[in-house]
């Protein structure tokens, strides 16, 4: 059969498109396998100097407490943040008790992350002589609101934004000079959420705050590399559902317990990606979700939110 010129162009175009598409998917697959299964861990990069410290906010429970425990076991001294002294001290005792090898230092500070009057300069001042090489800005939480935002006061809504964005921003602002002086690589993590990537009803202040953290990550990286580069880098963790005391679902592959989630993400710290999903099954979930039409996503999100609101109302009755 003889092909005319147009047939030839379209055959070539489709072949090239096919090759490019195959290359794109192969590259994504290879990058996935490398990140989660082949890449050598790089946490030790942040164990430099005599006594390196990791600072973790929201460390009295959930992901923060689990991450603190893992970091302590891997050689970090800790500075932990919480709002309830008894609860935070109990978490510290637990970390000390579970740690193998030599005892390391664990310090703490208390602050309500939703308060307008937190003195960040004073907080940072008490740790000014410590070498902080890792900061996990973990404090946060999605307060699901049964009504739209105009049913609440601006101050109330601002509380959500403080807990999920401004506390991390202000702490980073106060800490930066000290982090730059650490004398080696420093990583600052902002704990984000998958909910910032999709539109979920009744969760606007939370999701928007997490989006703020992502853009902050990108811009601060640009800041630290522009001019005379520093060794401080920022990364945003795109977190999916994790079972904690504040989110009691049935554990499964896609719903890991905080302890398992924290163990997994030790291999991700220092990977150099600006936005990373720290748990492989959540990354698979995101890939699939990304293929769904928006209308199906919104329908599913709405049903899930309604179920959670109903369950919460039943519990508080
Ligand atoms: N779990 C998930 O499915 C999930 C999904 C996506 C993203 N994330 C993100 O992961 C991070 C940790 O979540 P989590 O599930 O581990 O939460 P969690 O179990 O509720 O623990 C939150 C921690 O933050 C502290 N905290 C909360 N509000 C505070 C406030 N106003 N002032 C001071 N401390 C406060 C809590 O202190 P108390 O112990 O005193 O309550 C606790 O230490 C959050 O940033 C969250 O947005 C979680």
From TrEMBL:
Pfam families: adh_short (PF00106). The chain crosses the membrane at residues 14-38. It comes from the Eukaryota. One of its GO terms (molecular function) is oxidoreductase activity. The lineage of its organism: Eukaryota, Fungi, Dikarya, Basidiomycota, Agaricomycotina. InterPro entries: NAD(P)-bd_dom_sf (IPR036291), SDR_fam (IPR002347), VLCFA-Steroid_DH (IPR051019). SUPFAM superfamilies: NAD(P)-binding Rossmann-fold domains. This is Uncharacterized protein. GO terms for cellular component: endoplasmic reticulum. It comes from Cerrena zonata. Keywords: Membrane, Oxidoreductase, Transmembrane, Transmembrane helix. The keyword Transcription does not apply. Belongs to the short-chain dehydrogenases/reductases (SDR) family. PANTHER family: RH59310P (PTHR43899:SF13). Gene3D superfamilies: NAD(P)-binding Rossmann-like Domain.
């Amino acid at each position: 059969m003889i092909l005319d010129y147009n047939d030839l162009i379209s055959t070539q175009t489709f072949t090239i498109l096919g090759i490019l598409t195959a290359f794109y998917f192969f590259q994504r697959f290879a990058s996935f396998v490398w990140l989660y299964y082949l890449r050598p861990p790089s946490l030790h990069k942040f164990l430099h100097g005599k006594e390196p410290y990791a600072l973790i906010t929201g460390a009295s429970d959930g992901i923060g407490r689990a991450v603190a425990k893992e970091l302590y076991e891997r050689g970090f001294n800790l500075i932990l943040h919480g709002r309830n002294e008894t609860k935070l001290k109990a978490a510290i005792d637990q970390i000390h008790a579970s740690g193998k090898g030599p005892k390391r230092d664990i310090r703490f500070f208390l602050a309500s992350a939703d308060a307008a009057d937190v003195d960040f300069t004073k907080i940072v001042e008490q740790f000014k002589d410590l070498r902080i090489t890792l900061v996990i800005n973990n404090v946060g939480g999605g307060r699901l609101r049964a009504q739209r935002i105009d049913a609440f006061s601006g101050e109330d809504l601002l509380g959500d934004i403080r807990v999920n964005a401004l506390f991390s921003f202000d702490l980073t602002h106060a800490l930066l000079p000290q982090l730059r002086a650490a004398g080696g690589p420093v990583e600052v993590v902002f704990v984000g959420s998958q909910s910032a990537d999709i539109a979920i009803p009744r969760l606007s202040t939370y999701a928007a705050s997490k989006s703020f953290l992502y853009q902050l990550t990108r811009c601060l990286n640009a800041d630290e590399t522009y001019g005379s580069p520093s060794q401080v880098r920022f990364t945003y963790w795109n977190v999916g559902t994790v079972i904690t005391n504040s989110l009691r679902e049935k554990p499964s592959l896609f719903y890991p317990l905080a302890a398992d989630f924290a163990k997994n993400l030790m291999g991700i710290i220092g990977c150099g990606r600006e936005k990373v999903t720290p748990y492989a099954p959540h990354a698979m979930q995101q890939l699939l979700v990304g293929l769904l039409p928006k209308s199906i996503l919104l329908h599913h999100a709405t049903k899930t939110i309604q179920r959670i609101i109903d369950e919460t109302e039943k519990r508080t009755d």
